[in-house]
Amino acid sequence: MATDWTNEAAIRQWNGSATRETMEANAMDGDFAKRHLVNPVLLRLLGDLRDRRVLDAGCGDGYLSRLLAEHGARVVGVEPTDAMSAFAREKEAERGQGVTYVQADLTRLPDLGRFDAVVCSMVLMAIPDWRPAMRACVRALRPGGLFVFAVVHPAFEQLLDSWRDHGEYRVRRYLEEYEIAGRAASDFHRPLSAYLNELASLGARPREVVEPGLDPAVAAGAAPTTPGIDGYVHLPNFLIVSAEAPR
């Protein structure tokens, strides 16, 4: 991975790419992939959220915080960027769901008390120095609390483009770490083992690993406007892991 990448530089890039139009379009339940592949799994893994204290770690524009609050959770959302933090607070002022938003770098998480669950959705792969962020998530849990994280699947990171261009997924590098330039901002590839081994080093016990596939009917409906979407039926573009904090 390029040595000139810092967490601060990544935060600046995400802040600059956050447009009002995109945030409004995704304000209810995120984008297509989150609606159909990520959100249903997160909610299932988290279980009954009524009156549970939940940290949305790296909450972005706050869509997931709002969704968790709709399911009865008492939510704290943490986000470092100015643009997305401001948008999340604006929506809370409109809706009054009781979500508390804290602007902070997840790798330097302030003491917010302990949580029944911490969810870190589509965040870790966007952080150059990510291990302190995972450590902060696990440490924020009460003993036996639930940590759920979602990342772009390290083995199938550019699935849509590859499937569209080749009718299959192609990858040339996997074991090394490197930057993946994105349309909005960069992600950072690291092997699956890096995430799971770090989780184990923190004493967290994995409960379930999910590699969701897209419903073929949903893919068929989206195919006319999104060539290559059927790749999501056959290969997982996302990896979602739940783990129990040390007791």
From TrEMBL:
Domain Methyltransferase type positions: 55-149
SUPFAM superfamilies: S-adenosyl-L-methionine-dependent methyltransferases
An MF annotation (GO) of this entry: 3-demethylubiquinol 3-O-methyltransferase activity
Presence of the UniProt keyword Glycoprotein in the record: no
Keywords: Methyltransferase, S-adenosyl-L-methionine, Transferase
Protein name: Class I SAM-dependent methyltransferase
Gene3D superfamilies xrefs: Vaccinia Virus protein VP39 (3.40.50.150)
Any one biological process term the GO annotation gives: methylation
Enzyme Commission number, as recorded: 2.1.1.222, 2.1.1.64
Organism, scientific name: Amycolatopsis samaneae
